[in-house]
Structures are given as structure tokens and as C-alpha cells.
Amino acid sequence: MDPTNHRGPEEYDRSGEDTGRRRQSRDPLTPEFGHQAPHQFRTVQLISGDFLLTVNPVDGSEIEPCRPGEQPATPVRHTAAQRTERERATAPPVPPGPPGPRLPILERQEERERLVRLLARGRSVRLTGPAGSGRTALLNAVGDDCADLAPDGVVRLSGYKRTTTDLLYGLFEAVYRSPLHRPDREGLLALVHSIGAVVVLDDLELGGTALQELLDATPECAFLFGTTPDVAAPTADSNLEEVFLAGLGRSASIELLERVVERTLTDEEANWAGDLWFESEGLPLRFVHAGALLRQRDRLRTDPEAFDGYDDEAADAPFGRPEPVDVPLPSLGEGAAPAALLASRLSEAARDTLRFAVALGGELPHQAHLPALVGDTHADAALGELFLCGLLSPAGPRYRLAAGVLAQLEASGYGADADVRARTAAQHYAWWSGHPSVTPERAVAEADAVLASMAPLVPGDQTGQTSAAVLLARSAAPAFAAGMQWGAWEKVLRIGQEAARIAGEVAEEAYFHHELGVLALCTGNLDRARAELEASVGMRGALADKAGAVAGRRALALVADRSGEPSVIGRPPSGDEPPTGRHEDSAMPPAGVPAAMPLFPRHAEEPTTLISRQGPPAAAKGAGALGGRTAVLRGARRNLVAVGAGALLAAVLGTVVTLGATSGSEDPEGRNVTTEQPANEDDSENGLTADEPTDDPATGGGTSDGSGSPGPTGTATPSTSGTPSPGTTGPGTSPGTGTSSSGSPSDSPTQGSPSATKKPTKPQTTPPTESETPSETPTDSESPTATPSESETGTAPSMSDSASGPGEPVTASATEDGPGSPTTA
Q1: Reduced to 3 states, what is the DSSP secondary structure of residue 114?
Q2: I need a labelling partner for 670 at 20 to 30 A (CA). Which of 218, 494, 504, 816 fits?
Q3: Of 536, 529, 443, 452, nearest to 482 (Cα)?
């Protein structure tokens, strides 16, 4: 066996893999069927103002403040060569097929020279003429004459379905080079304010204050507007020059007709052209159509089979079509509305193209899409046929049906299956716009046709129409956002949101709400952004879409940061129930509610719920009368037992203090206040420690163990109760600290003994005995931990070598400030 010819086992054969790789390298759009790559999602990062926007087609766009150092550089102006290249790239494509005759501009020389003079002086002009009067041809000629007038050259824009904001951003992109950067409103106005160019703007649809806003934003530009009489007039103070464009004369109309036919007219044809001129008021477009009719007539006279389907009865004859002796001229009505007659003599692919154009409201798909839509590999040649007949007119970088053609074709039945063709176009564009090979720039150039294919589907009467619109909007929206055509982005989002609502696709509706909120945030409309994002977060929360909900909450937090208001995610079920949402920002307590009212301290991870009392209790009022004896309850969160103990302690303490304050004593503040509830260990965290009175007679304090209350002369009355006491607070000590008002610690480090107070009948005038005064320093045998009282355990703890002598029961208070102090019973 020859090893050079032996290829080994089949599983080790890699020839098929290499073939597939070579095939993919030759044609990346058609990968090998057995090894198809996963679908790639297009994620684009761009800067809008001071935001970093990440266009995410899956979960929704993410927006965040642009970090330091990531701000784009200042936009730079295009050079003259770059402007020329951009103008060539944005021009309508050259139709395939033989070129048509170059038509002159007849009887327009006076208007042409006047427009150039006005623009040279920096004046803006509004050229008004009816549809089909030759405005576009005149504008192009004037633009060529003004190429060297302005420092930024000539900028050609289309105002067809464009707003003032769209035109300002279009002017910015035509003059400045700033990839993946869309300035905010203030930055845009600052940049276009310094542009000095002659702006030729055809198909203007703005008037009044909207047009004045465009003029005010660009004081250094000279505009040449082309519009129709039905557009709103500018304001009185707009300072615009008005130039009206009328039809051609009879002789000029016949000359134009001869240029289109490229021969001299016969007397019969000249008389027919004269009647047409009287009926059409000399509109040049009518004579372009008339010339196309005469060219078709000439072809029929020389070749009867030149147009299939023109004479159906002759085609059904047994011997074929007889050679016609003469073809009559079209009637005056056919000359005035020639679209149906012209279309009937075109190819089948051209007629199908017209049906798609009617279904899209006059918008014509790019010639690259025609083979897929029509189902003919040579359907792109139909664009040349339609253009030669005068059925198309340029609109920016594309073509659309000429003026009046749409109505004529609809009257001839070309819109019978418009819904079906619009749905077909929507499905095609959904596949095309979502393909990874399609750049955002190509998708933006087809934006008008994409939007036009969605409009007939919402609301749709047939099954599946709204779903097709949702699919197209879902695919085209990220491409429009990445291409920074945000006017089209907003339109496709609005249509998609409405279609998703009708179709019941909640997930897609939440996506469109999210994108609308992000768009509103980028444009500075914070109220709309909050409403859209809250709707999106609510829908995604119901669908358990965690990734989408997180993106929405981040955008909401950014809205709250820009608006200066707390972001509330979630709403109360009803007006009577408290809010359950989480406040992203901290909120101050309402006016009139004291800060010490909340029983639970608020933490960063907890909801901002404020628990307050409707009215201050009697204990709180008494404590306020005593000069703020009650400490502010703050600290770490306690358990339920600690809460109950603290609440009971505050109530009893306030009641006793109130009784002491109203008892008529000469020195009510010097009395020892105790309770029958031992202090909880957790209270030490909140300042609820047993106070340590001083035994300095000068300060008026009692004994260090708290067993007696100081009298008027500084003496103490011993207590015989065995109940615990939280200690006393003398007039010269700080509450719960055991220090004097001067800041020095007390003489004894021990706590008060667990004894209750007994109201003294008479103050003592003699000093306490030695047995009543405990040692100032605890012995070594004392335990540092608290010992429960006899009332709690039933047994009395014993301590050796106590200051009171052996054999006497000794108890200690339970606090965490220090070891218990021995006291006498």
C-alpha cells in the first residue's frame, strides 16, 4: 500500500474542512451549510454628549457617563477633497442601462443669476414652485455656480421628512469629521454656529418657527431652499428672499420635448404638444413624460413586439401580431396622466418594482434589493427603465416616484396587493438589516424604505402583519442607532412599540420602551426617559428578565442623577398601602418629624422606611421638660427582645421622672431614678448604660453604688430594695457615661447596685457610715461579668473579701461599662 495515497480513516480527513474554509473566504455571506457560524450581534459604542452609549441589540442599549479621558477630540472640518468624495458617495446611484439624454435648463437663466447674486451677498432664498416645475434641476445648477463662494463649500441636503434637528445634525456631519460622536444640543449649536457654507436644501417641509430656528442656529450660512406652495410660509421677521418658479413657455416646452425625443416633431406632434402645454401650464415634468410616450410610439412603429403585453388582442391572433401601419398619438388625458400607459409598456420586473413602490407609499427600494423582492436576478435593470420614463425623481441618496405618479398608479390598480407586498418588503428588510455584513451606514441610507414598509402593517388587519413589523423594528433599530440617524431610530421604535402592543409581545414591547427611554435621556428629555424606563423595568420584572431589568435600573439611576430626584423603582399597589419600592437615593425625613423618632436605624441595604409616632407620648414630653434627659435611640439594629426592653425602659423612666419633676421637691433633679427592669446588654450599644454617680459632695452626687439618693446637703439615703437599678444621673454628670460635666471620670469605676429607690421621708444630715460606703477600688476576687439579681435567680451570689464584710449578700448591676461593684443589701 502506498502511504502517500492512503488518506487514513475518514474521521481524520480534513479536506472537507479546508474546502469549506476556502469557500467561506471566497463568499462570506454564504457559509458552508454544515459549519454555519453562530449569529453575531452588532455591538457599537458611541459618544452622545457626555454619555457613553453602547448599542446592544439583545438586552437594550446601555448608557453611562463618559469616563475621564474617553471624551472625543474636537471635531475637525472636512477638506475640499473629502467634501467632494462625500458628496459623490451620498448622491443617488447611476441607473443601469443606457444613459438618457442630458436635458438643458430652459428659460431659467434670469432666476439662476438672481439666486447666485443673493447667495453671494450672504442672503438666504426660498425658491417656491409647484411639483414638476424643475426646482431640483435649477437648485443643482445654482449649487455648481456657488462652489467657491463659502469657506466650507456647498452642502446639499434633503428636507424630505426631516425635522430641524435632523437638518442640523446633517449639516454637522457634512462639514465636520467626528466618527462615532454625536454632540448634545448645546455642543451641536456651538459647532454649526461657526459653519460658513452655501446650503442647498431641496424638498423643504418646514415653515414658520421651525424654519426660523434653523436660520438662527446657522447665522454664517446662506440657504437655498426648494419647496412647494403648500408648505407653511416663513415668519415675518425671517428676512428670507422669495423667488417663485413658474412653468415654461410654449416654445420652450416644445424644445424640451424635442430634446427628450432627440428628433424634430412633426406638425401633428407639435399641435398635440401645444394642447398639452395649455393643459399642464408648462410644467417641464409633463413634457418629459410626453417625450417618453413618443419614444415608445416610435419603437412600436418599427418593432411591434418591442413591448410585451401592449396589444393583448393582437398577441392572441393565430398568426401573431400584425405589423401596424401607424400608432396613434396618445390622447390628451393620457398625456396629462401618462404613468399607467408608460408602465404598461415596460418589462414585468419594472411593473413589479412599481407595485412595491406603491405599497411603500412612493418610496423605491435600492436597486440592490430589487432582485430579492421581485424574484428576478436582472430586476436591478428596472431602475434604468423607470428613470428614462421620468417616473422617478431623486430624493437625497435614493429615488422615489415622481410627483403625481403614485396617485396615477393607484388609480390604475397597482395598489391592489399593497399589504402583501409591504409585508414581503418588511420581512426582507428584517433579514437584511440584522445581517452582520450590513454596516450601519448602509442601513441608514435605506431608512425611508424601511419605515415605509412598516407603516402599512400597523395596525394590520391580516394575521402576522404586526409581528412582521415587530421583527423589522427589532432588527433595524440598533442599526439606525449605531448609524446616528436618531430621527429614523425614534420613528422605528414608536412603530415597533405600537406593533408589539397590538401583537401582545410583551418582551419586545419592553425592549422598545427601554430604547425610547435611553433615546430621551440622550436628548435631555428626563421626564419622558423616566416614564419609558419605568414601564420597561416593570414589564421585564414581570417576565423575570434579569439582564434587561438591570440595564433599565442603571439607566433610571442615571436619570435620577441628572434630575436631582430620588429614583423609585416599583410603585405601591394602592394609594393606602406604603411604598414597597427601593429608593436609590437617601431621602430626608419629612418636616416636623424629629430625627429620634425612627425605632430602627436605616442602613444602605434597607428600604428607606421611616417609622414615626403620630403623637409624642407622655414620657417623651416629661423627658423634654427635664432638659433632654432621654438619650437619642441610635446604634446597631437590635433583636425583638432588646426592642421590647428598650421601649419599656423608656416608658417607665419617663413616667418616674415626670412624677419627680411635679412632686414639689426643692431639688427634683437630684433624686435617684431607677426601674425594676435590668439594663440589657444590647443597650450598651445605644447609650443605655447604667450611669455612675460621683460621691463628691460638691457635685451633689450620691454614693458610688447608687444605693441612696442624695439629699439637699449631699448625703445619701440607703435603699433596702433588692431590685436592680440602672444607676443615677446627677446634675453634674453626662447621661450614661459616668463622667462629670467637666469631662473627668467619677471616683468609682463601678456601676449602680441592683436596688430600687425608696422615697425618703427626711433628708439625712449625718454622713454615711463606713459600712454604707463601698470601696473605691474593686478587689481581685470580683468577677468582671454581671451577676443576676436574687429576684431573678432566687439565690444570692457571694463575693469574697468584699468591702461590706463577710456573710452579707452582695449583688452587682449588669452592664458592659465595667465590672459590677459590691453593695450592701
Answers
A1: helix
A2: 816
A3: 443
